Amino acid sequence: MSLSPAEYTGFSVLDILTGLDCRDFTARDVAKAAIATIESLEAEHVGAFISLTPEMALKAAGNVDGTCVSGASPFEAGLLAGVPIGYKDNMNLLGSRTTCASRMMENYESMVNATCVSKTLAAGALPMGKTNLDEFAFGSSTETSAFKTTHNPWDLTRVPGGSSGGSAAAVASGMLTVALGSDTGGSIRQPASFCGVVGFKPTYGVVSRYGVVAFGSSLDQVGPFGRSVADVALTTDAMCGHDVRDSTSQNIDPTYYKSVLAGQREGIKGMRVGVVSEYLNAPGVTAEVTAAFKEALQRVEDLGAHIVELELPHAKAALSAYYVIGPCEAFSNLSRFDSIRYGYCVPDATTMTEQYERSRAEGFGPEVIRRILLGTYLLSSGVYDTYYYPAQQVRTLITQDYHSAFEQVDVLLTPTSPRTAFAVGEVSDPTTMYLSDIFTIPINIAGNGGLSLPIGLGLDSGMPVGLQIIGPQFKDSNIMRVAAALEATYDIPRLAPLVQELSNTPGGDAR
Ligand code: GLN
Asked: 191, 210, 226: which is closest to 91 by C-alpha?
């Protein structure tokens, strides 16, 4: 038995579990098909991976097959038995490097697995490799990676979004079934939107951050990408819950998939869905995004939910608060890369000061340096009271806005990003880049969960548009329910057309 890439790329998590259960194929067949797909799409087209781990995947597949051969059902082997997965390269996977897409960490190998990695591996997932990102996860296009540019599989001249652009592009092109990303200000949801896949940032505290290289510790959260809401729910179920190594992680029941089933079976009739009136006419939101968003609202109403218009009076200050709090936390977290304990070290420094200075200047790229300098300045004495302290006060006000909003509604809807994927090299000004996260950043500031659901292709660009579904803190079940019900009303491709196109091109056979 063997699986062709064309069959494999169409599989959901449940297709794989069911296929294994029915003995239609083995986990090794799935691993081999994933490897073949990556071979045909990765190097010349998408560029989603920093490193590949095919041997690890085949070994993990052998273990899953061993469990199944002994008579157990794959469902007993784990929620992700035989499912090809990729990890953003700021997550530690034993036996691979964790580069953070930075020269600073080019040769770093951790001695532990991140908890999100060990839990998904324990659930039977097949680790295919480490995916590309903006350096240290600072960015919205994956262009600041020190190693490569990742291309959007819907249009290879465009960016996949960021910072978890490699994970999003790998899932959209069918190379992976699911992938993990981290989201500090939108880095799962925005690339999911740009690449037309589902991306989910759970409520802060649902997934342990242990073993994930820290950016902004009060904002960072790990989450999955998949081609369906069910796939991201199953992946979240596999990795959520308390971890003694991350004191911010909470005891969470793995009931995400159950909420998806509830959404599919019972719908969302009678649910209250909030819309922020101001966002509908916000500057910078393109006409095609507004059109797709309005159509989604219509569908929500057709499903019997009630639209409630409301205000989040302080949310407009979220971007400003984020660009104070984020760089301050990043400055503090990145101080460990001092060329002595961790990180790149110039070989020929003659004094310790020179070693520090030159290693950091050469090891970090320009966006990382910009954030470190900003954080250093913002936390310096005298300046702290002017920026950092007020930013924390603003954060409290924004959080309260969301608490009040969720007294009136069950979920909130916004576009995920004001526009669809831009061209590689098109956005060079950092402020314009920062604005692509205006709808996602407030959610990290407040700590709530948010999911990006594909809602079709933009009428002008032809590129995917995403809808952001936000829930009350620790009630991500509302998000899953609405996402599943709404997803069922759309008949849109789950996979970028790239796979089919390449198989029709002479010499470019994707099979
Ligand atoms: N684009 C945002 C930033 O550059 C968010 C990044 C992220 O979520 N990791 O800070």
From this structure: 210
